[in-house]
Amino acid sequence: MKITITGTSGFVGKNLIPYLESRLFEVNSLSMRNPDWIQQFPLKSDVLIHLAGKAHDTSNTDAEEEYFQVNRDLTIALFQQFLKSDIKDFFYFSSVKAVADRVEGILTEDVSGNPQTAYGRSKWEAEQFLLKQQLPTGKRLFIIRPCMIHGPGNKGNLNLLYKVVKNGIPWPLAAFSNERSFLSIDNLNYLIAEMILHKETASGVYHFSDDDALSTNELILLINKTLGKKAKLWNISKKMIEKTAKMGDFLYLPLNSERLKKLTESYRVSNNKIKSELGINSLPLTVQEGLQRTVKSFDK
Description:
By secondary structure, the chain is of the alpha/beta class. It is built from 10 helices and 11 strands. Helix 6 crosses helix 10.
């Protein structure tokens, strides 16, 4: 089976390609940076996985229109070519941030979208266009909404927590309790391959996450255990921490209200729909196993 992937230079692409090849798929890439990419259609491929996109800029310095040009308009143009081609399956990698910046309870696929950022809105508008199109017989559309993806080589927020533990800095936010979902790159790879192979998998929106959620305190404990260190969790008054964060909004301290929210809020994502669709009870890696693999890669 032949698979074409856009965005192969990103973290997911660099991991997904060797995994699919190990499952004996034939994989090739399509660069969306090439202005003549449309000339490569019709591609001789069975599956098109669209990973290319503009990631969220946490510094908020990028122009909003860039998100819509890349995440929405390019996706629409690619999907229109897919409809004209002989390719059977189209995977669009969206994000849970396309529907919710904050989560009360557990995020499921039937949530009403309410993105608050240009990144989220651009992904949401692309989703809405795709879902309104009439699929020809024999074609499938999968909209994938992963939560926070991690794995060896990924230098995201987990790396920041790793440095806190590695440097022996006590964790000062132990008084806050939360639950967050994560997604191991290994589990992501597995789910994509299984969806391709299971021809009964219905078109639609699917959330990707590990089977269980962890609190930030549990994550700190896990990182300490992985590094063979004794955990240092400080149970400082919430009110004192919140006052310090508010001061940080004006004094540009390391801790401000936005950073405190990101470190302590809950964001649980359900993966029940995709597991039910594939007929599986659990993913290959537990959340703890996946996170330990990532942390160990930082320690090399």
